[in-house]
Design a protein that fits this description.
Elements: H1 2-13, H2 20-36, H3 43-50, H4 54-60, H5 64-93, H6 100-128, H7 133-160, H8 169-190, H9 198-211
Helix pairs in contact: 1-5, 2-3, 2-5, 2-6, 3-4, 5-6, 5-7, 6-8, 6-9, 8-9
Length: 217
């Protein structure tokens, strides 16, 4: 729910909950950046939606980019680190799996629920990361430091068992992530109003990663 991630954003940015104007500014900025994108959103529009004077925004944030980073950087450092890295690593990589299939199913369900809860801010990341190299560098460092080595061990383990073909780890990671990202983007960004059977879609994604489009014999 919206209130959940807003509460977490407020905590991550150190915003005083008693400062209602700043809370409304953050909430309005998330809404506007998510709906229209950063470049197409003006501070006057944010102020109008927040119900404050435009000058009030600049009391807390020197520029519109500072306001963007007040949202995006906590998403990376507070949400990406605990949820995508720390919690994700604990929930996923500290468990043992008897098959790559079960590992995939756990990963997809975990990230699917994360996306369901935090998609407004994830959408801002998706929109803005290509245009802000510092954000891209931050994400790359998080992935390289916290995720890649753990995923590599999983890949090598199941390659030794004959459950995954002998491909370089980056290729296995790419072939695994692409359908998962496609599912999440289609479900929450491109066609959110469609009637979805989420469990069936997750299962179809698992089977596609494992077997592609070729009928099993």
């Amino acid at each position: 729910m919206k209130e959940d991630w807003l509460e977490e954003l407020i905590a991550a940015t150190g915003t005083d909950k008693r400062n209602e104007r700043q809370m409304r500014i953050l909430e309005a900025a998330v809404d506007m950046f998510s709906e229209k994108g950063y470049s197409a959103t003006s501070t006057s529009e944010i102020a109008k939606r927040a119900g404050v004077a435009e000058g009030t925004i600049f009391r807390y944030y020197k520029t519109k980019k500072d306001l963007l980073f007040a949202i995006v950087m906590p998403t990376l450092t507070k949400f990406a680190a605990p949820f995508f890295v720390q919690t994700f690593a604990k929930e996923i990589f500290e468990n043992t799996y008897d098959s790559y299939e079960n590992f995939l199913r756990t990963v997809i369900r975990n990230r699917f629920e994360f996306a369901r809860k935090h998609f407004p801010m994830l959408k801002i990341l998706i929109q803005e990361v290509p245009f802000h190299p510092e954000l891209k560098d931050e994400i790359q460092q998080l992935l390289a430091k916290e995720i890649y080595s753990r995923f590599e061990k999983i890949v090598h383990h199941f390659q030794e068992q004959g459950q995954i073909i002998e491909l370089p780890t980056p290729a296995v990671l790419r072939f695994t992530l692409s359908p998962v990202i496609g599912l999440i983007l289609t479900r929450f960004l491109l066609l959110p109003e469609e009637k979805w059977d989420d469990e069936a879609e997750i299962e179809s994604t698992v089977q596609f990663i494992l077997y592609g489009l070729t009928p099993r014999r």
